[in-house]
């Protein structure tokens, strides 16, 4: 027999406890044990004991609310997932719940045994995935610590031998620095992966739970809104995974330059058309090809990835209604590409680190991203023996210019 799943309901209304208990009793193949507390402080004490697999938290808890409880419990290291019970069904409540640390929310009075069972199951699975990422991070830190201790011991032995002490210390310090950089890079990867995956996964989870409640034709618009949210989140996850895959291939030297001959102007127009679905409201890409020559012989796929990265950045860091200017030309045996936005610009202090993996400028903290796009662009340009330049002014926008050797015959 499968082990019972222990659920703690935190709600100051005994009637809600009775209703929740009855709904849970109606779950097919019921495998749940429901406990209940109405006290904010008693709930925190029970959460600290870690005896439950999932917590159902009411939004209103007397003088305090469920979001405060979830925030505090997560800060104290609670591992089991939280599901918020609320009387409202709106995007604002959804976002507040996710920011506090809840993995899902249910609207009181509307969910049935199927909704409750699915929400509990999905939340537990999601929490297990996040815990696995955290475990990998902790194991990495332990390995780095062990390696650091080994290197420290090597330094001690070299000092005792008193042979080529200075040169040996320099080599060891370099190794320590390289190990530190590796550790920081891996830690940034785990942190960013956990954060960037969590937001779209939470959106998919909450929208999938809500879609089942819209069953009539009158609900089509609401249902379609959540379908679009799921599509957008899946697309976001795909882009993140592609970025990680591109970085991995580049680091392993598995990105190759395979030139083909094609019409640069026609190709650029196709890329602009592909970008239309990603632009903000009122934004447009103003494309222009300068000159009569249009045929190039360069790697088409690498160029496409470069353009999609630069154009999506131009849209992401520009406000609604702004224009992204995109020009191409062919001159002096090279193809030239320029993308100019009217966005927030890059602070001078951050420009030296612009192409570092996972680096994000200080003025983009509220804009979603992994910090890999420009690093990928730079690596692709280098593979194509090209040159990447940029100009940026804070608050006025950024222009990226790429020059790639063209071997096509005129």
UniProtKB/TrEMBL annotation:
Q: Which EC class does it fall in?
A: transferase
Q: Which region is the signal sequence?
A: none
Among SMART domains, the record links this protein to: HATPase_c, HisKA, REC
- Residues forming the Histidine kinase domain are 192-408
Alphabetically ordered keywords of this record: Coiled coil, Kinase, Phosphoprotein, Transferase, Two-component regulatory system
Residues that bear 4-aspartylphosphate? 58
* Catalytic reaction list: ATP + protein L-histidine = ADP + protein N-phospho-L-histidine
Q: Which InterPro entries match?
A: CheY-like_superfamily, HATPase_C_sf, HATPase_dom, His_kinase_dom, HisK_dim/P_dom, HisK_dim/P_sf, Sensor_HK_Regulatory, Sig_transdc_His_kin-like_C
* Residue stretches making up the Response regulatory domain: 6-123
Task: Enumerate the GO terms in the molecular function aspect.
Answer: phosphorelay sensor kinase activity
Q: Does the keyword Magnesium apply?
A: no
- Top-level lineage group: Bacteria
What EC number(s) has UniProt assigned to this enzyme?
Answer: 2.7.13.3
> Which residues, by range, are in coiled-coil regions?
130-188
- Put simply, this protein is called histidine kinase
């Amino acid at each position: 027999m499968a082990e019972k799943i222990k659920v703690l309901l935190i709600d100051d209304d005994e009637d809600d406890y009775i209703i929740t208990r009855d709904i849970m009793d109606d779950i097919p193949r019921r495998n749940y044990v429901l406990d209940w507390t109405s006290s904010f402080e008693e709930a925190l004490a029970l959460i600290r004991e870690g005896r439950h697999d999932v917590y159902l938290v009411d939004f209103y808890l007397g003088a305090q609310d469920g979001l405060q409880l979830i925030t505090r419990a997560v800060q104290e290291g609670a591992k089991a997932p939280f599901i918020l019970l609320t009387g409202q069904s709106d995007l604002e409540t959804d976002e507040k719940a996710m920011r506090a640390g809840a993995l899902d929310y249910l609207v009181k009075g509307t969910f049935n045994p199927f909704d409750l069972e699915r929400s509990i199951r999905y939340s537990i699975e999601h929490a297990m995935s996040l815990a696995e990422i955290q475990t990998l991070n902790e194991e990495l830190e332990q390995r780095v610590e062990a390696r650091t201790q080994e290197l420290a011991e090597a330094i001690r032995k070299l000092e005792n031998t008193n042979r080529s002490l200075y040169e040996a210390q320099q080599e060891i310090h370099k190794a320590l620095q390289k190990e530190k950089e590796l550790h920081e890079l891996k830690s940034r990867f785990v942190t960013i992966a956990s954060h960037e995956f969590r937001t779209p996964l939470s959106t998919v989870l909450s929208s999938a739970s809500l879609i089942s409640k819209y069953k009539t034709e009158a609900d089509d618009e609401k249902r379609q809104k959540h379908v679009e949210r799921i599509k957008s989140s899946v697309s976001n996850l795909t882009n993140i995974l592609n970025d990680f895959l591109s970085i991995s291939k580049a680091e392993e030297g598995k990105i190759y330059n395979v030139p083909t001959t094609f019409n640069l102007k026609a190709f650029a127009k196709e890329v602009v058309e592909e970008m239309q679905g990603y632009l903000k409201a009122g934004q447009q890409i103003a494309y222009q090809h300068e000159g009569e020559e249009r045929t190039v012989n360069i790697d088409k796929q690498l160029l496409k990835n470069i353009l999609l990265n630069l154009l999506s950045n131009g849209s992401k860091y520009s406000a609604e209604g702004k224009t992204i200017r995109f020009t191409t030309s062919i001159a002096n045996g090279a193809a030239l590409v320029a993308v100019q936005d009217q966005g927030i610009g890059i602070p001078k202090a951050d420009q030296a680190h612009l192409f570092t993996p996972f680096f994000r400028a200080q003025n983009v903290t509220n804009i979603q991203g992994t910090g890999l796009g420009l690093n990928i662009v730079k690596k692709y340009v280098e593979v194509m023996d090209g040159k990447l330049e940029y100009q940026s002014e804070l608050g006025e926008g950024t222009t990226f210019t790429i020059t790639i050797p063209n071997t096509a015959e005129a």
